[in-house]
Amino acid sequence: MSIRPAKHPLESAMEAAVEAARWAPSVHNTQPWAFSVSGEEICLKADTDRKLRVEDASGRELSISCGAALFTLRTAMRCHGYEPVVRVLPDPDRPSLLATLRPGSETNPDETVRMLAEQIERRRTHRAGFADVPVPDQLIDRLVKAAAAEGAELTPVRSPAAVDVLASLTRAAQGVQSQDRRFSLEVIRWARPPGSSRDDGVPATGYPRHAVRTDPDFPQRDYAWRHDWGGEGGRDPGLGVVALLTTAGDGRADWISAGEALQHVLLHAAAYGVSAAFHTQVLEMELLREFLRREICSGAYPQMIMRLGVTFDDTTSVRRSLSDVTG
Ligand SMILES: Cc1cc2nc3c(=O)[nH]c(=O)nc-3n(C[C@H](O)[C@H](O)[C@H](O)COP(=O)(O)O)c2cc1C
Q1: Which parts of the sequence are annotated with region: Disordered (predicted)?
Q2: Ligand 1 center from residue 277 Cα (angstroms)
């Protein structure tokens, strides 16, 4: 019988951090990341083979997804007792290397870090209306602070007129995309049929078969596309709180910090029973995104459009295994 030597706590912490980062949200659950661990460094790389070539030609959504993975790495590392030391885009000659993370000084994770870490695997995207339960203003204030801590701005959209504009833009973008074969094929490519053994893409249990429309209506992406796919639930029509995540700039570093802010907001919200539904179709169409930037975002760059609310529906998601995302 061979007895394996116990892992050093640092080695366990690094492995646990990568394991956790797999659970970050990503556009269409493309999971466009790869991690490598060498010595005391974790490298987070973009897996550009998983980029959405039609919806996301610039790689903005890919970078936001990887930014969410970076925040997850940081949180897990802290929870395992090490202050992360991060360098974003550390090497201009290696554009797909998005960040490196090294364990810094030892730390005692506080209650907030533990609370966020607990939500990493539990948090789920919602794709329908919300229950008639208000989201407390105090929580929204904390989410605004969470986004600011990562260099982005979360703005709850309180004016009904602005909410209407956002809903109309979403309907316009969804209408155009659903008529465009290239967009439709990309959504179909990442929609996971019931019973599929794939470990990426949006599973049919990730959205309800028949959802009640919100008022105003923010259409969902059509992952079921002519199939009778979807889970139960979706009876609640609540709109929730519409919110925009913006950044002052629009380069790769801004997209990565938008992703970090997104995951900080989502984990904090999840800890208080609040989920997010996303409507990012508008942001994939240059003219509509520019209109939104000028008319609603006071010149800041919109990175995510979401509704925040309470749901009692269960949805599920999948992830690739640790060995698939490490090399
Ligand atoms: C940049 C980005 C854009 C997204 N856009 C949408 C969207 O428009 N509609 C949607 O239903 N989900 C959207 N999502 C959520 C992903 O589909 C979701 O994170 C992924 O399927 C994994 O599921 P989970 O979040 O439940 O773990 C987006 C996520 C990211 C990071």
Answers
A1: 194-213
A2: 8
